[in-house]
Design a protein that fits this description.
heterodimer; A: alpha/beta; Rossmann fold; six-stranded mixed beta sheet; four-stranded antiparallel beta sheet; 9 helices; B: mainly alpha; ABC transporter involved in vitamin B12 uptake, BtuC; about 75% helix; globular
Chain lengths: ~260, ~350
């Protein structure tokens, strides 16, 4: 699928909401085909950074480039043909079927009065299949469980055939089986189709297991950036989360894993 | 969809046929064919019948069809865009604006006829569009008009304008305002007296409905919310303006010949959604056709049930519509599962 460069580059990006919260001078380069996890406490700026990367927020200063193209110069439609987003919250008020929801992912490719997108249905079905949800295609989206819904939303993003996939806490509120399933899916997509993946995550251990690179944010800036080994350390975690943890190695995969130490212990 | 189109024609012929003077459906069909030159024999009917059909009933029936189609389409647009099942064509201030405009016009001692329209329908049309502009302007902040702000601004502006209308009503004696006239506007009733009115409204309504087809896919995209719609490549603020503009124009057209007819624009979209599902590519045309049939039928009953008195059609839309909708709701429950 993606043969074009799909790297994400944030150059000296600053942004502030009118309420006061701000991102300061963010520089971040995610090369084509990387799978990066975005970590940080609540309110550290992960979601804002993702929204800047999607172009729905425009930086006050600096530029966001995807595959070398400045998002300021692309239309929403052009952006949506490159970048798919799995947002933190996804709800739909009417009784859409799973297949109809996934077909929404084809929106940026539909042309003209009749809505010509001949390959659309085939691509949507392939995406449903990749997400393991093909047998749910005629079910109503709103009747599915949280884990099933998240897989459908992911399938909808896949139907956009993105070169860059941005996800905001894709495993939040899911049981461990579904968390693993979602992350395996992302990894497969990243490896087989060379889709660049950037996901905001809360679970440090899962992140260390699945992402080659972790970017840790704090108070609107990047605090640490590197391999799990470089980012998941006792000192860094304490500095950013004010939480005491012990860090050890996973016995099989050897990536760092934290164990929480309650304050009065 | 084909069935619905047939239904529109059937209801139209039936509506033209029924009245104080009964004219058979066959004769009407022949008259219509004769009019467009496909049928030569004129011996089957009397000239008075022809006058009744072409000068009295047909304009009114077509007017009812246009109003029904316009309100149902506007209802689909607003419910889809605002993601609110309680939205109707009047939700962002059109009804109150139209009532305000109409009441003001009734106060003025002017008699204007413009393309077959009197001052009241023109003022209602302008009032409807004007109030939407105010609502949009009030809701807009920093280049964005979030949907919640728009619903709230719509509610506030509506309340304010309704209060003024109420004030005018209480002072009706002093102002010389005819209460009967205001009430008949508020309850809704098709009033088409000139073909000219149809020739102005019909193109506006039909073109607007056809144009909605371009936005059907994007209305589906709006179902996932404004943020989600942006991720699907939709230029949210621009399309919001266009969709609101078309919906408001349709509503303004409807109030200018029908007054404030309730229920059609709320219920027809839901009824079609229950039957066909939420995909706007089918929902929009189906609602337009169903709304046209429904309102022609309601108007037929409105003018025949208590003949020679006329029941406000807004009363009938709710009287027929509510039980019909309850039936659909009980039978097909998929819409409201969560």
């Amino acid at each position: 699928m993606p043969s074009e460069p799909t790297d994400l580059l944030l150059q000296d990006v600053s942004f502030s909401y009118s309420g006061g919260f701000a991102l300061h001078n963010i520089n971040l380069f995610v090369p084509t085909g990387q799978m990066a996890g975005l970590l940080g406490p609540n309110g550290s700026g992960k979601t804002t950074l993702l929204k800047l990367a999607t172009g729905v927020l425009t930086p006050a200063d600096g530029n966001v480039l995807v595959g070398g193209e400045n998002l300021r110069k692309l239309s929403r439609r052009e952006v949506a043909q490159k970048i798919a987003v799995v947002p933190q919250q996804f709800d739909i008020p009417f009784a859409y079927t799973v297949e109809e929801v996934v077909l929404l992912g084809r929106t940026p490719f539909v042309r003209g009065l009749i809505g010509d997108d001949k390959k659309g249905l085939q691509i949507a079905i392939t995406a449903l299949d990749a997400a393991g949800m093909i047998e749910f295609r005629n079910r109503y989206f709103n009747e599915l469980s949280g884990g099933e819904r998240q897989k459908v939303v992911l399938a909808m993003a896949l139907a956009q055939e993105p070169t860059l996939l941005l996800l905001d806490e894709p495993t939040a509120h899911l049981d461990i089986a579904h968390q693993i399933e979602i992350l395996e899916l992302l990894r497969k997509l990243n490896r087989d189709k060379k889709v660049t993946v950037v996901a905001a995550m809360h679970d440090l251990n899962l992140s260390a297991l699945y992402f080659d690179r972790l970017v840790l944010m704090d108070h609107g800036s990047i605090f640490a950036d590197g391999s799990p080994d470089a980012v998941i350390t006792k000192e860094i975690i304490f500095n950013v989360f004010s939480a005491s943890v012990e860090v050890s190695r996973h016995p099989k995969t050897l990536v760092p894993q934290i164990m929480i130490l309650p304050p009065n212990h | 969809m084909f069935g619905l189109a047939i239904a529109v024609i059937a209801v139209m012929l039936l509506s033209v046929s029924v009245g104080p003077i009964k004219i058979s459906v066959m004769d009407i069909a022949k008259m219509l064919l004769h009019k467009i030159g496909l049928y030569g024999n004129t011996s089957g009917w009397q000239p008075t019948q022809e006058t009744i059909v072409f000068q009295v009933r047909l304009p009114r029936v077509i007017g009812a069809a246009l109003v029904g189609a316009a309100l149902s389409t506007a209802g689909v647009l607003f419910q889809g865009l605002l993601r609110n099942p309680m939205a109707d064509p009047y939700v962002i201030g059109t009804a109150a604006g139209a009532a305000f405009g109409a009441a003001l016009a009734m106060l003025l001692p002017l008699s204007v006829v413009f393309y077959g329209f009197g001052l009241v329908p023109i003022a209602a049309f302008l009032g409807a569009l004007g109030s939407v502009l105010i609502v949009y302007r009030l809701a807009r902040f920093g280049g964005k008009a979030p949907i919640v702000s728009m619903l709230l601004a719509g509610f506030v502006v509506s309340s304010f304008l309704v209060a003024i209308v109420m004030l005018l009503l209480t002072m009706s004696d002093r102002l010389g305002l005819k209460l009967q006239q205001v009430f008949s506007f508020l309850m809704g009733g098709i009033s088409v007296t000139y073909w000219q009115q149809i020739t102005v409204i019909a193109p506006l309504v039909i073109i607007s409905i056809v144009v909605t087809r371009f936005f059907a896919g994007h209305l589906n995209g709006f179902s996932v919310g404004e943020e989600g719609a942006a991720y699907l490549g939709i230029n949210v603020e621009r399309e919001k303006i266009i969709i609101l503009g078309i919906g408001s124009l349709l509503t303004a057209c409807a109030v200018s010949i029908g007054g404030l007819i309730g229920f059609v624009g709320l219920i027809m979209p839901h009824a079609m959604r229950l039957i066909l599902g939420p995909d706007h590519r089918f929902l929009l045309p189906a609602s337009a056709l169903a709304g046209a049939s429904f309102l022609m039928l309601a108007d037929l009953l409105a003018r025949t049930l208590l003949n020679p008195a006329e029941i406000p059609v807004g009363v009938l839309t709710a009287l027929i519509g509510a039980p019909f909708f309850i039936y659909l709701l009980r039978r097909t429950r998929r819409e409201y599962a969560f």
